[in-house]
Design a protein that fits this description.
about 675 residues, Neuraminidase, 4-stranded antiparallel beta sheet
Length: about 675
Amino acid sequence: MAEASSLASAIDRHFLECVICSDTFKDPRALPCMHPFCCECLENWAKSCSDDNSIVSCPLCKNIYRIPEEEGIKGFPVHFLVTNLQDTVDKAKQKKSTTGICDKHGKKLKYFCENCGCAACSDCSALDPSHRGHSFIRLKEASRRLSCSLENLTRIVGNVEEKYTTAIQQTQQVKQNLDQDTDAKIQAIDEARNEFMQKVDNLVRAYKQDAYRMKEKNLSAIEQIEEKLQVDLASLRSSNELASNVIESGSDSDIISLYQSLSSSLQQLAQAQPTPVDSKLGKIKLEPPQPTSMDLPSLEQLLCDKLHITVTPTQHTQVSHQTSNLSVKPAAAKPLPSATAKHLPSSAATKSPLPRFTIKSPQSSSIKPLSAFTANAEVNTATASKQDPSLFPRSQSVQSTMPSTQPRIDKKWKECGQIKTTPKVESPRCIAIHPNGDIVLTSWFAPVTVFSRHRNDLSWNGNFKHIIGGSPSNIDDIAITPSNQYIIPGSYGKNEFYIYDSQGVLVSTIPTYDINNQPSRPRSVAVDSTGRIIVGLGWDGHKTVTIHQPDGTLISKFETTSSPRKLTCTPNVKLIISFVDITLQVMNQSGHNFSIIQPPPGIQPGIQSWEPVYVCCSKQGELFVGNQGYPKAVYRYVCTDGEYKYLDCITRMENNPWGIALSADEQELFVVDNLSSIVKIFR
């Protein structure tokens, strides 16, 4: 009795007293660090932590946590370990007056029933029918065996505790690596700034901001893992300490009565493993800035070389012969395009623009263009720019292609009409809209067909106009260039694409080869704002994207991780590509992946759910995605901070949405319903 009383008192004192009020817990609540406190005590304590009662610091470990907005302190979970322990201690106190005496026969408990797992008296073992045929041992021997079992479990849990300690040390090491890597990146940026000019500090500052932003992003993920490890470790230690107290201070009866709950808890904890930390979080991955209005791609190249990242600027360096040393001469000032303005601090974007510069070099130099070319293609920039200015577009051409305004995210698209494509075109696949309003459709069963369009008071109507001469059937895509030429990929067995003029007359046939120079059939085509032709070679397992000049001459090509299905171009000349592996990725024209576009909320990636195939991007950066999973729908995305984020659903469809296209003024959206041979129009 004395031993039971002392154990209950010790448990009360060490585990069941609130450190704030020094009294028994009332409605114990657990902070994320797993330290328990009375709910009322915690509410009073929180009032002293902040004026708006939004945060609370743990009185023991001093960690700071945000209070749940709706429920306040009661939003923190009930501390289950404390409540369970209170129940166990209460039961022990209720039975302490009869500890060691059989409730049924009133005799002293001397034996332990191995079948029932409980203490028993001599009458229980000899006379009680419920124990008939059971095996009994001395109570002392049973207590010794169970103590050994608990000791083994505490030893196992102690080993798990060491694993958690090691894992926490690893997170701290990764945080240290993150700091060191960030410092190295910042130092490299500062060195590049010192090597160039003070005038470009704004660009350097942009790199720094990206480095710190990525650090904060990685640090947040690391701290979440560390916080979970700390919580699990606190639970391990608390449970192990309780078991140790029972072993050291508990009586035989206490050990027997608490063994079931303690062993169950310790067995679960013994199987726990610490959450692994990804060592990649200790590194930061920076991306090159958007093109600037300065004719100084060497500045971006210098920074990116020091940071070991790839840059594909669209400007070229003007090199002239001079006998003097390298000099920089300011030219007429031009405003920064929107791509640069968003990358610079707000104060710099609103002040006077940076001047353009012309670099005069004492040496004649043949400089390879900074955009990606095939491995064996070396082009002299001075000669190439004379032959084809579109290969090295200057800053003013980039500026003219950038959207003047951001897309309105509050506008809603509503269906305003339909066009029936039969009997001329059955089961249309892809669509393009000519600047004059004509609708151009491809199909597996008909040549590329052009419809003129007019509108009466009730709906849109399409009238057959002509067939693009010589184009075969089984065409899977189509694009229209800024000069109103048609780009059409080859049909089955044709490893080539065709360029037709605005009247539908064949201009040229361009053969296509994959990254290994093997003939490959085009699956998709697109045209960027500079007139370059982008071709996706995704049939028969090929994984290549090729970049061509407006006349079809190959500029470069790169290999993709999966077969490209459909692609479109963004206002800043990036690519959005849907792949056979059910991903939708944003890439540059060198094949560098910037991000993966996530499915709308509530839709899981994978076949039968998120299958983004057809894509279309406006001049203002709005992205329209046709999902052929479930639900079949057309979704709208808007680019913010360089990432495409889901905005709303344009329409849900009974059949798969196939081709998607915008009118020249981008006020109308056209969606092909393949099975119904209908083109739906939204405004």
